[in-house]
Amino acid sequence: MNLDDIDVVSHQKHEFISKFDFIENLEIVEDVNIGKGGCIIETDFGEIDARISSQLDRIEERFKNFSSIF
């Protein structure tokens, strides 16, 4: 997670954990490669890339796929 976002998210950590019984541990880690507003969530079941840049890449790819239909 971006350093600028850690304070905001850290304050919400316990509230988030309390909503999900299956979460035993939640570690928030700074990563200089992640832009503000984004994060990567790693679990035993896989990874969720919620970086803004990755979301924009997926949107661009979908538009390209859509435009190739016409």
TrEMBL record:
GO terms for biological process: bacterial-type flagellum organization; protein transport. The keyword Transport applies. One of its GO terms (cellular component) is cytosol. Pfam families: FliH. The keyword Protein transport applies. It comes from the Bacteria. Keywords: Bacterial flagellum biogenesis, Bacterial flagellum protein export, Cell projection, Cilium, Flagellum, Protein transport, Transport. Signal peptide: none annotated. Belongs to the FliH family. Needed for flagellar regrowth and assembly. This is Flagellar assembly protein FliH. It comes from Borrelia duttonii CR2A.
